[in-house]
Amino acid sequence: KENEAEPDEIDTTTQERERIKQEISTMSFEELQKLKQKVGTKVYNETIFGAKRDPKTNFKRANKNRPREMSSKRKVNVRNEISQVKKQQSFRDPRFDPLCGTFNEKMFKENYKFLFDMKRKEHKQLERELENSDDLEEKKKIKFLMQRLGNQIREHDKREKQRNKIQEEKREIRNKLKIGEKPIFKKKSEKKLEGLIEKYEELKKSNKLQKHIEKRSKKLASKNKKQVQL
């Protein structure tokens, strides 16, 4: 076509650019697109709009002790960051964390039953050490440990006995319901009375009943004395 300009004929002088602009202004849109495809987008834009000259900013410091001015167009490297926000470490308590599941007392007792077996063995070992020891300070220390272990074992056995008793009562109620009989639900006062009777029988068998009565009497006397003083 007559109005199409070859790439070699494009001059960078102002007069030549003005002449080319006048020629292009008379071309149709289709001819402009063909020219753009032929010479390329970069040459086409430079011919019509002129070459872009971005003024470069001088980031050189006037004084070496001053902070360096950086271009905002450049991506900052993570390693060059002055301060990094550290992720706060969080701690979890399994007792109050729902992710750890719910507490199952029965399963807990079965899984850690061996601990009280170890305590019973340790109590027997302390008894043997007490018999073989001649040092008064060491005997005092062993007696203290034996008393502490003994209290823990007795409390554990007491709770186990109560738990077994409750399970037995529930089992009897279920069995009576299965055969169509009316179950008997005991009152708290009846259960308390049965517990006192069982405790009395145990103290009587172990010959500790008199000692328990004396201890109980002293406790009641001390309580009454405090009430009188008030």
TrEMBL record:
<dbReference type="Pfam" id="PF06102">
    <property type="entry name" value="RRP36"/>
</dbReference>
<protein>
    <recommendedName>
        <fullName>rRNA biogenesis protein RRP36</fullName>
    </recommendedName>
</protein>
<keyword id="KW-0698">rRNA processing</keyword>
<feature type="region of interest" description="Disordered">
    <location>
        <begin position="54"/>
        <end position="96"/>
    </location>
</feature>
<comment type="subunit">
    <text>Associates with 90S and pre-40S pre-ribosomal particles.</text>
</comment>
<dbReference type="GO" id="GO:0030686">
    <property type="term" value="C:90S preribosome"/>
</dbReference>
<dbReference type="GO" id="GO:0000462">
    <property type="term" value="P:maturation of SSU-rRNA from tricistronic rRNA transcript (SSU-rRNA, 5.8S rRNA, LSU-rRNA)"/>
</dbReference>
<dbReference type="GO" id="GO:0005730">
    <property type="term" value="C:nucleolus"/>
</dbReference>
<keyword id="KW-0690">Ribosome biogenesis</keyword>
<feature type="region of interest" description="Disordered">
    <location>
        <begin position="149"/>
        <end position="171"/>
    </location>
</feature>
<keyword id="KW-0687">Ribonucleoprotein</keyword>
<comment type="similarity">
    <text>Belongs to the RRP36 family.</text>
</comment>
<feature type="region of interest" description="Disordered">
    <location>
        <begin position="207"/>
        <end position="230"/>
    </location>
</feature>
<feature type="compositionally biased region" description="Basic and acidic residues">
    <location>
        <begin position="153"/>
        <end position="171"/>
    </location>
</feature>
<comment type="function">
    <text>Component of the 90S pre-ribosome involved in the maturation of rRNAs. Required for early cleavages of the pre-RNAs in the 40S ribosomal subunit maturation pathway.</text>
</comment>
<dbReference type="InterPro" id="IPR009292">
    <property type="entry name" value="RRP36"/>
</dbReference>
<keyword id="KW-0539">Nucleus</keyword>
